[in-house]
Structures
1.
Amino acid sequence: MMAVLMMVAVSASAQSKAEPYFSFRELPNMLKWCPAPPDTVGAAFAYDIMQYMWGKQMRQNKERVEIAIRDATYSLECIMQEFSEPLGLKMSEEETPEIYKLLKDSKATCENISNFPKFYYKRIRPFMRFHEHTATPQFEPDLRRNFSYPSGHTILGWCSALLLAEINPERADTILTRGMMYGESRVIVGAHWQSDVDAGRLAAAAVYSRMHTSKRFLEQMQLAQQEFRIKTGLATPAEIKEFEKAAKKRTKAKK
């Protein structure tokens, strides 16, 4: 079994570049089905303001704001670190290469759905509107150059939660709870309006659904599930044999 996992690790690490499952034009167009951000005079925007104030209050909770600050780092490494405990397995590029590849290519797909609506709506972030600082001032220069709607962090966090819950459905409640917190963190640090986060979760669900129509995604999901079961000692001999066969096939194809 160890030899199989080492072979897969070498094979997966050879593919360093993310390969999105779908391009922007192949994904659902958020402008056609997702609500536009609220205007500044209605009840929806009033709720956004209330949630912004709630987020500032939550910064008084030391433990919660520390989590929110960790969540502010937009990276696959952050996702794997924060979701390893809910998943029940430590994730990394070296230790879980198949799960890593699934998340990496899914992250690139998530980014393909979010970029166009961000630049179409050009929504200003809450901390900029109120001329205040976030709980993560080190990221503010980048945030000022990017737009608010929808929340890219939330898309990544919620899509990752859905993927990991599919890998380990026994811990779906815990994984999805962490996924909800990941989006909530964007309101707490002051980087996003609540409606940005809500739209981000809708976008993540759209990406997740679309990816399930990709044969390459389904094959990678199966490899990730098998890797999880092997790593956690749940795999049957037949599953180990199937995983080994797939690993050898992939290694041969790379030569």
2.
Amino acid sequence: MKHSRKKNARRYIVAASIGALLSAGVATGAYAGTTDEPSAPAAAPAYQPEMVKALATTLGVSEKAAVQRLDREADQQDRFAELRKDRVDTLGAFFAEDGSLIVNAADAEAAKDVRAAGLQSRVPERGESELDRIKAQLDARALKSAPAGVSAWSVDLASDTVTVEVNGDSDAATRSFLKAAKSNGDAVRVVKGQEKLETQAVVPPGSRMTFNGYLCSVGYGAKDRSGKQVLVTAGHCIEDLPALAYNGTRFAKGTHTRFALGTRSVDMGIAAVDAGNSIGLDVTTYGRAGTVPVKGSKRAPSGAALCKSGQTTNWTCGKVGSYNVSVTYTDQNGGPDTVVTGLASSSVCTQGGDSGGAYISGDQAQGMTSGGPSNQRCNGQVNSPGSSYFQPLDDALAYYGLTLNTK
């Protein structure tokens, strides 16, 4: 049943942030980039400058060393992709603190193939498939009754465990969830003292993208199998499939969402872009360092450098955490808790108003802001300490059968 009262209340915490810029009939000149291009432009840097600066500060190294780290990450990702292409039996991979890509191999033979490719390997006790199985069991339990005292649970390849983050509440659903989790022995790691989570939403004065008096985010542009243009965004932003406006002029209409307050949800959704309008191919850094071109959607491994663009905290950077993350979102207006699956975690700082903001690693689009800790406050710096959750873009593209618009 559709509960309009709860959905209307939910609107008050829908987020506002701009990821990729609107263009053509939607964008204004101020956001379309400079028109005074030099006749012989210098070659574009391999990496976005603010990402390099943020990574250098985070690692305590020079910017040159940060670029070398990014180069090494890219090279290792290419080698890992070749291993998968050659059907080497691997169980996931992650970046270690020193920048080395550690590949989980299924057995000694596979480990030998990994090392021959110039990558580090290990044969884990469990590995990604087994951890995914355990997490799926926990998902099934949580979707029957949302555990308010559990903020998130995810597969952590580095520790070879399913990590469960607890916020202190102790309702019956939480106790049942934790009992089930602990029955898996040391395959599950419980981390206490975490904050409650929420979809990061606010209604500030003025708007970038508006609907029915409220506002939300612009994510990424893509086309469906018939060639029609769509906007890919966070599902909770278009829960009621509204008409969307930019600077007071309609440019799109919500068509599909997998988010519904109080029910099993995935935080992805799309809107059909009206004829004459389009979604831009550059992510804004809010004046920090120009714009970042979108050239693909290759998923970055855990530990890779990552930045996000959002209305409230603007351009912030960190690292990819885990994939296949499930969370319990608390509704600020007293509505039911919502369990959301299929997210990714990060050390990128976000606040209310950043939902839908675009995550990007290098020039590869990664996803859209979903939520984060309720009381988190970023410090205004690009590499502000913090955490957040995002909806992976590649999953949304695959689910809806879309092709990302790229430069």
3.
Amino acid sequence: MSNSADSPEAGSGDSSGPGAGTAGTTESDGSSPLATGDASARGGVRPVRVLTVGVFALAGLIFFTSFDTAKGTNIRTDASLLKLSDLIQERSHKNGQLDESNGVLRDDVEALAERDDGSTEAEDARLTALEKNAGTQRLKGQAITVTLNDAPPNATAKLPGYPEPQPDYLVIHQQDLQAVVNALWLGGAKGIKVMDQRLISTSAVRCVGNTLILQGRVYSPPYKIQAVGDPEKLQKALAESKAIQNYMVYVNVYGLGWKVTEDGPVTLPGYSGTVDLQYAKPVE
């Protein structure tokens, strides 16, 4: 029994002796995958280790970038956007105050100039007419107001045969405001006010996103456009405008806001902003 190969003691003795080690080497001297794998693992760097080091390095870079961007704040919120929005509103409000202050100073300058400017009555009358046409003086008369507003965000097509709305269909665009202003001028408007500002020949009605930028100030819908003139002619011009007819399709299908009211006698304010033209100049 002591020479049996099944004996644990014999197995232990063979494996630990020199002869057993030599025999093991002879049997694996061929193309054994196990032997080849051990040799390559001990002789070079395992790819798994390189991949692990790369993953940890990338994670460290991401953490550092997040820390450097956050600067101790929560980057998961819209606080930065809110701050930018507040800054825009603050600047817009400041521009409004400066316009009012500029208007007061202009009135003072005109009052001083009228004391003794050496002009004749005919020249004064001509100057007054020019100021009235330029929109810098108050204007009284019968007026109408057009109000445009965005559609509800969850609006759907109200009429059959129309596709479901895209987000772009549900907001007021620059061309909508321009269409109303152009139609009112065509209808004989003597003066137009958009929101709380009088339009002049150099005024530009522009939209960025769903906000209106007019003469340095920012507005959100609903947008109100008031015009002084013959109410009947003004409303007829609105109804005949092709651009407004196209807008009315969106009003009826998707619920964009549209309202026209007669205001009776009103007084439009004079334009109080700067009248100096600003333009690019070549670098010398």
4.
Amino acid sequence: MVLLLRMIPCQGRRTENKKFGDDDMFAWKTAAWNLATGSDAPLPKLDARTSGMVAGTKVATASGWARIETINAGMQVLTFDGGLQTVVSVTRHVLMADTVDIASWPMAVPAGALGNREAMTILPHQPVMIESDLAEEMTGDPFALIPATALDGLRGITPTRPDAWIEVIQLHFARDEIVFANIGALFLCRAAADLTLTTPLDDYTVLPLELADDLVDYLAAEELPAPHHAPMQQTVAA
């Protein structure tokens, strides 16, 4: 059974001896947001419903792997069902992280936990595709889309406290597509620019969290070591 998932490195906070620290960067991002919107309002907030890929995630393109922040409309990206598809538009959000609401925290994946070469993170509401025998029994399809938050506890995957802000990028195609990311991951990309996935899906169904939790529990149980039984000793009469 294969779990098809890769995620991105979680960046640590800058040390105080840097000339340009997190507080400065956050202030710069807020100023840039205000300039772009003509408003003094704070940055939009990252919450538990936010979907999208964090800057730094690599996606498969016609010319190889590329960081998602370098992708522009008109470029082609490899998709699970449609092969190479043209990106219609790109939505970029700089979101203020909530360091108190754990439900909104990105999920940290230790190196090697899912075959990933480096420690990675993904937003908790981002749908990811897994392959499982149980998924086929449940839905008739071995591939299932689940919210990343359902992976909590599997192979050391846990929510991680974010920095002050996080850049989220969404790729949009003519229709909903599942894209390859970080050399094997499968992430859902919406046709509509909807951070919270409230717009109905065209072709894909994301399992409800309760069913997704059951699926992940099944995967975890499969990996438990088989119980060890000591060999029975027989007494041979003299």
